[in-house]
Design goal:
Largest sheet: 4 strands, antiparallel
Structural class: alpha+beta
Strand order of the largest sheet: 2-1-15-11
Radius of gyration: 23 Å
Shape: globular
Length: 614
């Protein structure tokens, strides 16, 4: 993102904030770290104690989930909804066998091929010139239900038919791990064959090794990678230039911190000598890692088949990352010597390039003097720290979350009241939208406080999902994003990691999400270009999509000059993306050469999240 873009968005955000009543609804409107990787004012006073109000900012009342007392405590919410999982399972009414069959195609494609080189989610290239290999992959995925590609192919392994393995990146790798964790939990708990359960367990074990690698390779407690790659399977990785963390005088390199520098293994015993790692873990990347920690811990915490040393190590690393976020540091842009916490720290002793998630920061600049705060960052911080604290089960981290971030700084109220900048219609940064929804998912699921969860429910419903009338009237309700539909439906139901649904979910939202998943192309998901609107249609501002729907073309008015339509593009004709939940839903044209084999981790994360939630 250019400095000019940052300034423009900041000015627009501030103008709209003050126009919509000072302090009512504002937040960061633009965040992401690169081009490829990756509304309504509410009450904000500090004194009101209306027991029917989930919009106030104290944490002492609102005991509206009955446990026969007047206290806000973790024992509230004790009247469960006796229905199915969000997406019904094998023996539940409404189970969709066809959708699970599609999920099985994506599971096999992703786990056998896309994870074959790096161990975690990665995009692949299978050269168009290698027609036999491409046909072999297609036949294996589409005409069999086998997990044994080598036998099917007559001796070839997945590594033999893949031209290039791209890097693991924290956001996508993290949600891929979460999908695998929930998948294992569903198969284990819902009556699947032992063979299926054991296979899912093997993949989850591989994932946990990947989490440990993402932390250990940095060599510094509390530091996690932006991404990594295996030199033994990727030609580009083997030859990619690396930079030492420090020069001979102890000065960090490169001199100016950037958005990702590749490093050699920095682990204490050089255990990852054949791997390289990318530093400068950003906001969206740490969201992915936090999602992985939370989901894995949910599933294995009480599973006696996992070794205690594995559980202890997972908790220790979650604690170390959480402790790193607690440290107050000086030197941030605009900080004027003031120290701030909630910065993502790196192995070179500097804050990462997009490592600012403190509620006083807007993009990469501290504006602590403003009467408004950054609701997006507050929401993300609650989710990230909430997932890490849930995993670590550490009293110090719990105190930091519940007493300091919530009790003293009221991040929950800031998240609820200051979310304006997430939705800016045609210049919306859909990566920021994804970060807001992912942060809300984590906060809703892992923060053990009824009042906070009620505020997260309000935030998801009123600011992040439902279409509102007015100046900025585009919201995820119409995006055709299954993950967002399921997060909203779950928030309405009250389901968390601590208890099952309290009331029925929003079934129309669930149905929208299911339809969005059904419209995904069957794997293998090649990244062929999709052109819905030709130049004449763009010039006339009317376009007939490839499925026959008509849309209004707005022109190249989106963020970074993106071609936009007024109506969202249906999933069945939407351009390909390696993660649709952060791509523009109004963009009619786009894609690649067709050589890219996309992992479908977006499908898998939404589907298995829906199957796990109950």
């Amino acid at each position: 993102m250019t400095r000019a873009t940052t300034v423009t968005h900041l000015i627009l955000s501030l103008f709209l904030c003050f126009a919509l009543v000072l302090g009512g609804a504002c937040g960061d409107d633009d965040d992401d770290d690169d081009n490829n990787d990756d509304a309504t004012p509410a009450d904000d006073d500090t004194g009101d104690d209306d027991d029917n109000d989930t919009g106030d900012d104290d944490n002492d009342d609102d005991d509206d989930n009955d446990d026969n007392d007047d206290n806000d405590d973790s024992a509230d919410d004790d009247t469960p909804y006796e229905g199915t999982h969000l997406l019904p399972g094998l023996d539940e009414e409404g189970y969709d066998a066809d959708l699970e069959a599609k999920a099985d195609l994506y599971d096999r494609s992703h786990l056998i091929f896309n994870c074959s080189g790096q161990g975690l989610n990665a995009d692949l290239t299978v050269s168009l010139a290698n027609e036999d290999n491409r046909e072999l992959i297609e036949d294996f995925i589409q005409t069999t239900d086998s997990w044994d590609f080598e036998t099917f192919s007559g001796g070839l392994t997945p590594l033999d038919v893949i031209t290039e393995h791209h890097k693991v990146a924290g956001l996508y790798g993290g949600v891929g791990i979460a999908a695998d964790a929930y998948r294992y939990g569903v198969l284990r708990d819902q009556g699947y064959s032992q063979e299926d359960v054991d296979r899912a367990r093997e993949f989850l074990d591989r994932d946990i090794e990947g989490v440990f690698r993402a932390v250990e390779i940095t060599g510094v407690p509390g530091v996690v990678v932006r991404g990594f790659c295996n030199q033994e399977v990727g030609n580009w990785c083997a030859v990619h230039e690396t930079t030492p963390l420090f020069d001979e005088f102890g000065n960090p390199l490169p001199e100016e911190k950037n958005n990702g520098t590749w490093r050699e293994d920095n682990s204490a015993d050089n255990r990852y000598a054949t791997w390289k790692w990318e530093d400068s873990c950003s906001r969206d990347m740490i969201l992915g890692w936090a999602t992985a920690f939370g989901a894995v811990w949910e599933v294995i915490r009480d599973d006696e088949t996992f070794d205690e040393d594995v559980k202890d190590k997972l908790q220790q690393y979650a604690k170390e990352i959480g402790y790193s976020l607690m440290v107050e540091r000086t030197g941030g842009p605009g900080s004027f010597g003031q120290a701030f916490d909630l910065e993502i720290f790196d192995a070179d002793d500097r804050t990462t390039y997009h490592g600012y998630i403190n509620e006083n920061a807007f993009d990469r600049v501290y504006l602590a003097w403003l009467p408004i705060k950054d609701g997006l960052y507050a929401l993300m911080s609650l989710g990230i720290v909430g997932a890490l604290a849930y995993t670590a089960e550490d009293p110090v981290l719990d105190e930091y979350l519940y007493d300091h971030l919530i009790g003293e700084r009221h991040l929950d109220t800031i998240a609820q009241n200051h979310q304006l900048g997430v939705n800016l219609w045609w210049i919306t940064n859909y990566s920021a939208t994804n970060m807001a929804m992912q942060g809300a998912l984590l906060a809703q699921r892992y923060v053990q406080n009824t009042v906070v969860r009620d505020k997260m429910r309000y935030t998801i419903k009123r600011h992040l999902y439902e279409t509102q009338q007015g100046l900025l009237n585009r919201q995820p309700e119409e995006y055709n994003y299954a993950l967002y539909d399921f997060v909203y439906a779950t928030a309405i139901s009250g389901a968390t990691s601590y208890h099952t649904m309290l009331e029925e979910p929003d079934f129309p939202a669930v149905e929208r999400g299911v339809e969005a998943l059904k419209e995904f192309p069957d794997p293998p998901f090649w990244d062929f270009e999709v052109i819905n609107c030709d130049e004449d249609e763009i010039a006339s501002h009317r376009c007939t999509l490839n499925n026959g729907d008509e849309v209004t073309v707005l022109g190249y008015v989106g963020r970074n000059g993106t071609l936009m339509c007024e109506e969202p593009i249906p999933q069945e004709v939407r351009p390909p993306s390696n993660y649709r939940w952060r791509s523009c839903p109004y963009q009619p044209n786009g894609g690649g050469s067709g050589a890219g084999m996309l992992p479908g981790v977006d499908f898998r994360w939404a589907y298995w999240y829906g199957r796990w939630v109950q």
